[in-house]
Amino acid sequence: MTASGVATFAQLPDAAGHFGPYGGKFVPETLMAALEELEAAYRQTRGEPSFQQELERLHRHYVGRPTPLYHAQRLSRELGGAQIYLKREDLAHTGAHKINNALGQGLLARRLGKSRIIAETGAGQHGVATATVCAMLGLECVVYMGEVDIQRQSLNVFRMKLLGAEVRPVASGSKTLKDAINETIRDWVTNVATTHYILGSVVGPHPYPMMVRDFQSVIGRETRQQALDQVGRLPEVIVACVGGGSNSMGIFHPFLQDTAVRLIGVEAAGKGLETGEHAASLGAGRFGVLHGAASYLLQDAQGQVLETHSISAGLDYPGVGPEHAYLKDSGRAEYVAVTDQEAMDGFQLLCRTEGIIPALESAHAVAYAARLAAQLGRDQVVVVNLSGRGDKDMHTVAGVLGIIL
Amino acid sequence: MSNSSRIVTCFARLKAARRTGVITYLTVGYPTLAETPALGSALIQGGSCLIELGVPFSDPLADGATIQRANTAALQQGVGLAACLEVARWLRQEWRDVPLVLMGYYNTFLSYGLERFCADAAAVGVDGAIVVDLPPEESGPLLQHAGPAGLAVIPLLAPTSTEERIRRVATQASGFIYCVSVAGITGARDRLPEHLPPFLARVRTHTGLPLAVGFGLSRPEHVAAVGQWAEAAVIGSAIIDTIDRSLPQERVAALRSYVSALCGHPLSRHSK
Questions:
Q1: DSSP code, position B35
Q2: B87 vs B81: CA distance, rounded Å
Q3: Fold annotation for B5-263
Q4: Order of strands, sheet of A22-23, starting from the edge strand that comes earlier in the sequence
């Protein structure tokens, strides 16, 4: 990595929202003015001390930040290799990292004077986080969710309704996250004057990939300081799961210029990359445009977006954040994939050794970290971003294990 | 006649005849790929001044339920950009001077290859492309290949477009400008929005190009109203709705008479 290359990472995206050939703003003209307004408001607001103070106050007293960096000693001993540390985003309010972004955008929406919030959700964690923030800020909230996801995440649907959100089922296409995003964009095109769209990942048109990354970077900033305090140095490796890629980008970004730190993103290999039933956009996709950004995309020969599969609804998405595409091409981050079965094994391993039930999304990162740690020396440190807790996945896990609840 | 100059000629004729153009949209492959050529011909026979051939896409995020459904039906038959070009080739052989424009989403064009698309489209007699999710900021790569091939890249403007954006779009536009009538998605609506005349007036101050108004139009009175401020009206979802209301053997006749009613005259002026 050259010095100029390192400097480039910190400066991206460019003024047009591009990360090299990726990113950009590929949306209908109706939304362009709203994106320009959002970007201007975000660039102005993020520099205001009063905004940062309010965000920090709520991080501390509402979300419960900083979340712990926990040395998983039994897990590390069992694997017999590197020391595994868990960044406990599962302990954040609502049970996942999604609250970091929802809170930041919610505060921004209020400053923009938008009283109505819309959001998409896959696993339901972003929907729950958005509904939570809207309840706390007194904003109207509509969440779009694919019918398939509504079925497999019924608990989160109930949570959103309790929090006062309206959950609108999406019956088009594959009835999962990508279709929920389509429908949310249709709503936004129609109601753009009154409505802010809280997009839940580092995907979509500029400025979303940049803005969501910035709001999620609190994970990496805390991890960096905690590693210095607890270990006395930076970790050798950071591992995080990648669907759209917000938790991984959040923990990666503050480490981009620490080139000795390996950054590893773990995609969902579903039933295996060779089966075609997976969600590994970086591992098996090619250049394309979906939901407003250019990135790696799972698509057929005619450019139609493919339906994806993962045991975890939060990773079940055919695209990936444009900055991840850029980090992959540049070699700064590595991307691997683990199967549904491996994720289940990682899930059970963490339950058994540490008394922590991870989200199935995070279990992908646990599974890969476990495999990697076993090959590394005991003096090495691997940080796993434990992006969410697994309560929402009990029905899915029980089903896989053949247990009727 | 060369590509994209058909569009210029088409609007010149409308002006000379003092008529409001009726542009019609048809999703290629709806209801079946086999029917598309005949349905396209019916639109022309009914009096359409320009045909938009919809390129099916899996994620049509600017479209309402009607065109989404048409896209899904087309995709189930495997219809992609290559099939759309074949339909265009057939229509061009039948209809010498009617402009044909492909309308769709960027990824299908990108996947086909922009340079290859422009060359192939020009070769079969396509005159232009409307790419719904390609604003001027991102349209450089397509324009680079479209220009030499003689294809017009028709830009879209919306009521939410700022003065600066209108100016920018106007300077790089060719053919005509597609003005979206509402902040919203496609689909037939009862009435025209009140902000339409001032929006079109704003656009007019920045361009001498013809303006076509689309999204939500379905009735002869919509066409007449649009004609007060623009050169053409675009009818899309209502074409799909008309197909749906007709028995299979009556679809061609139904489309012909529907478009002819929109045009306010019974026969096509296009030469074969």
A1: G
A2: 10
A3: TIM Barrel (3.20.20)
A4: A18-19, A22-23, A293-297, A286-290
B60 three-state secondary structure: coil
Choosing from A25, A39, A76, A120, the catalytic residue is: A120
Beta carbons of B160 and A25 less than 8 Å apart: no
Within 10 angstroms of residue A67's Cβ, the number of other Cβ atoms is 24
User: Residues A237-292: pLDDT tens digits?
Assistant: 999 999 999 999 999 999 999 999 999 999 999 999 999 999 999 999 999 999 99
Measured distance CA(B151)–CA(B130) in Å, rounded:
11
- Report the DSSP beta bridge partners of residue A266: A241, A336
Residue B129, helix vs strand vs coil: strand
Chain B residues in contact with chain A using a Cβ-Cβ cutoff of 8 Å: 56-62, 64, 68, 72, 75, 78, 80-82, 106-112, 132-135, 137-138, 155-162, 165, 169, 180, 183-185
Token digits of residue B218: 């379905």
Among B28, B160, B167, B202, the strongest candidate for a mutation testing the A interface, having the largest count of A CBs within 10 A, is: B160
Say which residue, B255 or A4, is predicted with more confidence.
B255
**Sheet strand arrangement including A195-197:** A166-170, A140-146, A116-121, A195-197
CB-CB under 8 Å, B184 with A189: yes
Parallel, antiparallel, or unpaired: how do β-strands A286-290 and A293-297 relate? antiparallel
Say if the Cβ atoms of B160 and A34 lie within 8 Å. Answer: yes
Task: Say what the pTM is.
Answer: 0.95
Best residue of B28, B33, B57, B59 to probe chain A, by most A CBs closer than 10 Å: B59
Q: pLDDT, tens digit, for every residue of B219-264?
A: 999 999 999 999 999 999 999 999 999 999 999 999 999 999 999 8
Q: Are B107 and A193 inside 8 Å of each other by CB?
A: no
ipTM, two decimals, is: 0.94
Give the domain ranges of chain B: 5-263
Task: Return the residue of B nearest to A305 by Cα.
Answer: B58
What is the Cα–Cα distance from A390 to B265, expressed in whole angstroms? 66
Name the residue in chain A with its Cα closest to that of B163: A33
> The dihedral of CA A16, A19, A20, A26: what is its sign?
negative
Let me know: does B153 contact B141? Beta carbons within 8 Å.
no
Closest of A250, A249, A98 to residue A159, by C-alpha: A98
Q: Which residue of B has its CA nearest to A307?
A: B58
